[in-house]
Model the fold of this input.
Amino acid sequence: MARLKFLCDADRCIECNACVTACKNENEVPWGINRRRVVTINDGKPGERSISMACMHCTDAPCAAVCPVSCFYGTADGLVLHDKDLCIGCGYCFYACPFGAPQYPRVGNFGGRGKMDKCTYCAGGPQADNSAVEYAQYGANRLAEGKLPLCAEMCSTKALLAGDGEIIAAIYKERVQRRGYGSGAWGWRTAYKEGLAV
Amino acid sequence: MMRRILPLALLLLAAPAAQAQQNAQEPAAGAPAVQAIAPEVGAGRGGTGGGQQPVTTEPQAPTGSPTPEASQTTPPQPPTPVTPIPTPAPFTDRGQSDAAELELRRALRGGMIEGAVTIPNQTAAVLIQPEGRDWRVFRNSTLGWTGAIAVLGMLAALALFYLLKGTTQIESGRSGRSILRYGGLERANHWMVATSFVLLGLSGLNLSYGRYLLRPLIGAEAFTSLTFWGQAVHQYLSFPFTIGLAVMLAVWLRENLPTRTDLAWLRAGGPMARGHPPAGKFNAGQKLLFWFVIGGGALVAASGYLLMFPFTLTDIAGQQWAHMAHGIMAMLMLAAILAHIYIGTLGTEGAFEGMSSGRVDYHYAKEHHRLWVEQEMAKAQEVVAPPARARSAGAD
Done:
């Protein structure tokens, strides 16, 4: 089985936020929730870079490790998904997540945050594939249709790559060798405990 | 408009002038005309000075009738050989290190990689926060072990203490007379804090240990409902708990101020002492517990409210610290209150009545809180038989 990953080529990302919009539209993400976001570091300074970030579907995922109700599960493709029917919205996964991926609709009493929502790699949830229930809870299940996440598929500069980790790493390495520079795979060391040596 | 036109006009004027200058120079130099028309490619432009000229044999096709065959047979040739010009590092790449290296450095230093976002949620500007890993270790390992050792250790110690010492009896037996120890407000407040503490403790323990102990027993769905309601209980009961602590502080502050008697009580061995060292309404052990509960309770309440209203006052690091302080302090308080429950019920004969009916046996009070009883007796004496100077005027 493939090990699905995301890779953002920061030297190509132009901060157009199309991935964010694509994600929101494809998954009907509620207002105020960003499964994917574009962070610009060194904004306006030399060395400025934009990185599109969402759930990285970590190896040995911290969110799953700290969840008090164990609502996370892994798929054969290496994705980290969760069951919203089991989630209690405690917010622990956000404290543990290195990438700030878990999102919460602000509903309920006090800081009660409702069921956590995060990037599903366009792979839905534990419900039946492409059912109405699954769509309402988790958004599109493109993976079941043989498609990759929409954010990466419609990235205008092909900065955001999604797919089997080895293949996207090879694509990135080839790019770096051709153009002679590259700032590396953002988040890979933290998420997959491996850098991307070019 | 003028700005654009002006350079253009200057160019037009300059072009014929330059041509005229070249024409004037030609006969004077006396050099072959070819050289002047096709100057050698300089070494600085990548040419090697071999004298090869760029091939410009492309046939000039008349407009409107392209001849694709002709252009295919003789594609434009670059001057050969060419020394490759290395691509300069882009502006963005200068002085920047690799992402993986940056991540590692930040992780080792415990810093986060932060940037700017264009969405309203500004907490999303944190790209990578390596501290999440430390917090995970705290939650899954440190807190779990600390709590288990503190709570189970305390239970074991109390069991051992009970086996060795048993219940501390009222040495002179029950007198049959009682003395008021805690008034209505004191008792009501105590039980408000006590019930909320127990429920807060149980729902808190469920968050830490439930997934290991309860979830396999009752199933995922039932455990989620239980934990969800437990969370609601935990949040709502924080209010009576906090208010109760404030009332406790107000009601019992004066009697819990440290005195010299407390030093003597502790020096005598405290709870291990033979006999009963003299004590006021509260002995030094009770005073320590009082201040531990007030201080710890304040910390737990403050950190708890930070967690209840996440990211209102703190950032992600602040939330993690709040959770850590909350968890550790709560576990220690659980252990301390277990000891308090033991001493107040099983450990001491006649102690529990004080908090249930409000009145304790006179002998119990005299043994455990001699100075307080003496004080109370003196006060009662004043009411029953007031000293001569307090007699109302005109009575005789």
Observations:
- The CA atoms of residues 121 and 265 of chain B lie 57 Å apart.
- The first strand of chain B starts at residue 113 and ends at 114.
